[in-house]
Amino acid sequence: MPVNHFPFRLALGQGIPQPFLPYVFERFRQADSTSTRVHGGLGLGLAIVRHLVELHGGIVGVASEGEGQGATFTVRLPLRAVASDELQGLRTGGRGEAATAPLGEGVPLAGLRVVIVDDEPDARELLTAVLEHHGAAVQAASSVEEALALVERTRPDVLVSDIGMPVHDGHELIRRVRALPDDGGGRTRAAALTGFARPEDGARALEAGFDTHLAKPVDPGRLVAIVGELAHKGDGAGDGAAKLRLASSR
Predict the structure, then answer these.
(1) Start-end of CATH 3.40.50.2300 domains in the chain
(2) pLDDT in tens, 56-83
(3) Which CATH number does 5-92 carry?
(4) Which of 3, 44, 124, 202 has the fewest CB atoms below 10 angstroms from its CB?
């Protein structure tokens, strides 16, 4: 017997170019994929929406007359209750246990100075919370200029920067950091966060001056491990102080 669906429609936004409509719900797809795009995001949000809707037996679609015309998203959900054991399976990943693992166990970050750079407030808050939970002293910046000032003033042990930001991107930031004197933050260990997950995107981050890169969405445990590893490297600008603080925290 067919399942009745309840439709929910929401019209919003500046519109979507019609040639891009078939790709809206694909992972990491964006109409503007340049690293200096004005609007942020990873190209994951709508893919997650489709996945969640389909988990509940629904369907989601989009229509738009083009840029400047807005877009209409339609979600259809089945008119039936989900059994409690199904909900429990979603919460636990079907394993009968909590799906979330502990974050970065055994990685000491106590006393480390970290600068986080991301133009998205939610992303800055999440990254800051994860690292502070493991003992790091975190300062956050929303732009290249703000981040560069923090690096020069505080000489952090590790810099963690998003690549895709408006006006100036993460590549520009690390080039400007590397141009600083060694005793002014120029050798700060740095990790790039990139929503551009192709191998060539990672290689470009390394060529620009980053020591390593992480693809978004970032696994918290991996982030903590990378920051700890970078702080232990032997030639960062703040490395001597970092080693002393790490040793005293053990």
Answers:
(1) 113-249
(2) 777 888 888 877 778 888 888 765 444 4
(3) 3.30.565.10
(4) 3
Domain 113-249 in CATH: superfamily?
Response regulator (3.40.50.2300)
SS3 194: strand
Q: From the DSSP assignment, how many helices (H) and strands (E) are in the chain?
A: 8, 8
- 206-48-142-236 Cα dihedral, nearest 10 degrees: -30
Cβ burial 94-112 (10 Å sphere, 16+ → b, else e):
eeeeeeeeebbeebbbebb
In this model, does residue 172 exceed pLDDT 80?
A: yes
From 71, 90, 70, select the one nearest 25 (Cα to Cα). Answer: 71
Q: At what angle do helices 144-154 and 170-178 cross, to 10 degrees?
A: 30
- pLDDT reading at 13 higher than 60: yes
Q: CATH 3.30.565.10: which residues of the chain?
A: 5-92
Phi, psi of 19 (to 5 degrees): -60, -20
Asked if 205 and 213 count as a contact pair (C-beta separation under 8 A), the reply is: yes
The answer, as to whether pTM is greater than 0.70, is no
Nearest residue to 230 (alpha-carbon basis) of 221, 215, 220, 242: 242
Q: pLDDT tens digits, residue range 14-67?
A: 778 877 777 777 776 555 445 444 444 446 777 788 877 777 777 888 888 877
Q: Rounded to a whole number, what is the distance in angstroms from the first to the last CA of the chain?
A: 63
**pLDDT above 70 as % of the chain:** 67
